[in-house]
Design goal:
302 residues; TIM Barrel; eight-stranded parallel barrel; globular
C-alpha cells in the first residue's frame, strides 16, 4: 500500500506528487539539477519542441510586469530528433515523470513530431495548441473547437503516448474547446497557457516586442486561470492539470479544489528556483494537518 499522501496517477502514469515543472520554464532540467533536487518533483514538462527546431524570436524576449512577466521566446528549441536522442534520456535519469511538449507551425509538423516522439522514452505527450508568441500555427489550433478537435484526433491516431492537450485562455469559448478535445480522444488537458498581452516603451515610442504581442504569466493571471480550470473541470471527465500563476502550496491547493488533479509551476521558478519543492513540502504539511490519506480527496470539491 502506498503511504505517500501526495501520490497520484495521471493518464495511467504514477506521479509521486502533483507538482510538475511547466514547459518553457525549466528547460530539460539541466540547469535546475545543479541547484535543486529535481528528483522530488512529480514531473517535468520539457521545453516546447518543434519538428525542426527553432532559434526563437528576435529582439526582447522577457519583460517584467506587475505581479508577472511577458515573454516572447518564440519556441526556441533544439528540435524533436535531438530531444529523442539526447534530452529524453537525460530527463528520464532525473526521476520525475517525463512530459514532452510538442508545438507546431502546421498540421504535418505536429504529426511528424508525434511520430518521432514514439521513439522517445517519455510518459506523456503534451500537445501545445496554445502558444501565443509564434507567427504561424501555435495558438491558432486552440482557438476554436473544430481545429482543436481535428489536430487532437490526428495526433492521437499516430502517437503511442497518452495525450494531454494544452489549452489557450485566449479562446473565445474555452469550455467548448476543452469538450472538443475530450471528444477527439485527449487523455487529459492542461490549462491555462499564457494570456495575450502587450508592452509599450513610451520613451522609444514603440512596442517592446518585435511581434508586438506576447504571453502574460505569473501571479497576476491566477484568479482568471483558476476560474477557467473550474469551468473546464465541470465540463469534462478527463483529468486536468492546472497552471497559471501558482507561487505557493496554497495556490496549488486552490487549483486542486477547483478540479485539477495536478499542477504545473512556471514563472515563479524564475523568481525562486526552489519554489516547487516548497510547494511539495507545503502540500505534505497540509495533508498532515487535515488528516488526509491522499491529497486527491480534495480534487474538485468546489
Amino acid at each position: 500500500m502506498d503511504c505517500n499522501p501526495l501520490s497520484l496517477t495521471l493518464c495511467g502514469v504514477p506521479l509521486q506528487n502533483p507538482v510538475i515543472a511547466a514547459s518553457g520554464t525549466f528547460g530539460f532540467g539541466h540547469e535546475y539539477a545543479e541547484i535543486m533536487d529535481v528528483s522530488r518533483l512529480g514531473g517535468i514538462s520539457g521545453k516546447g519542441l518543434t519538428l525542426y527546431g527553432s532559434s526563437g524570436n528576435a529582439g526582447m524576449r522577457v519583460y517584467e510586469t506587475p505581479s508577472g512577466m511577458l515573454n516572447s521566446i518564440g519556441l526556441e528549441n533544439p528540435g524533436v530528433q535531438h530531444f529523442v536522442e539526447t534530452e529524453a534520456p537525460y530527463m528520464r535519469s532525473l526521476g520525475p515523470a517525463v512530459i514532452a511538449n510538442l508545438g507546431g507551425h502546421c498540421e504535418e509538423d505536429y504529426l511528424e513530431g508525434a511520430r518521432l516522439l514514439n521513439e522517445a522514452d517519455i510518459d506523456i505527450l503534451e500537445l501545445n495548441i496554445s502558444c501565443p508568441n509564434v507567427r504561424a500555427g501555435g495558438m491558432a489550433f486552440g482557438m476554436l473547437p473544430e481545429p482543436a478537435a481535428d489536430i487532437t484526433r490526428r495526433v492521437k491516431a499516430v502517437s503511442r503516448h497518452p495525450l494531454m492537450v494544452k489549452l489557450s485562455p485566449n479562446a473565445p469559448d474555452l469550455v467548448a474547446v476543452a469538450r472538443a478535445c475530450e471528444s477527439a480522444g485527449a487523455d487529459a488537458l492542461s490549462l491555462v497557457n499564457t494570456f495575450l498581452g502587450m508592452a509599450i516603451d513610451v520613451k522609444q515610442k514603440r512596442a517592446v516586442f518585435e511581434n508586438v504581442y506576447a504571453g502574460l504569466s505569473g501571479p497576476a493571471i491566477l484568479p482568471i486561470a483558476l476560474r477557467m480550470v473550474h469551468q473546464v473541470a465541470h465540463a469534462v471527465r478527463i483529468p486536468i492539470v492546472g497552471l497559471g500563476g501558482i507561487a505557493s502550496a496554497e495556490d496549488a491547493l486552490k487549483f486542486l479544489m477547483a478540479g485539477a488533479r495536478a499542477v504545473q509551476v512556471g514563472t515563479m521558478t524564475f523568481a525562486k528556483p526552489g519554489a516547487m519543492l516548497d510547494i511539495v513540502d507545503g502540500l505534505s504539511d497540509y495533508c498532515a494537518e487535515e488528516k488526509l490519506q491522499n491529497l486527491q480527496e480534495i480534487v474538485g470539491m468546489i
